[in-house]
Amino acid sequence: MPKRSLSNAADKQQIIARLETIQPTSPRQWGKMSAAQMLCHLADSFRVTTGEKNWELTRVQVTPIPMPAWFLKWFALELPIPWPHGTPTWPEVDAESGGTRPGDFENDRRELLRLLEHFTRQPRDFQWQPHPIFGPMSDAEWMRWGYLHMDHHFRQFGV
Description:
Layout: H1 9-21, H2 35-50, H3 55-58, H4 69-78, H5 105-120, H6 139-156
């Protein structure tokens, strides 16, 4: 079975359909984020990867993970297992820290859809920014990451 990716039209459409089912009252299965904070977190994550939001402006020292970046990237993007729960959120993409705070839920959802379209647009009109853990990534790796990141948080809300 091929790995799911936002570069696959059916996978992207499935992600959009799942996004449409999330409600402000959707209960989380784990973690601290509300559904509204999760939408802002995903939006900020896309903003950072496309250069709309700069990591360097708010860089906070985070304890490094004691594994090589290539191994973590392979583990996260290639293995067919769900991402673990409880991974700390970077301050720049945390609605309770340096990230975007929720506003109107439907406006935040529309903004995430806009950013998803921008992230997946071909040809690209931006340069990928290095991932804070994995470093530089290819188009295919970013599309896989985007799918897995959204899937992870949608599962967090039972969607």
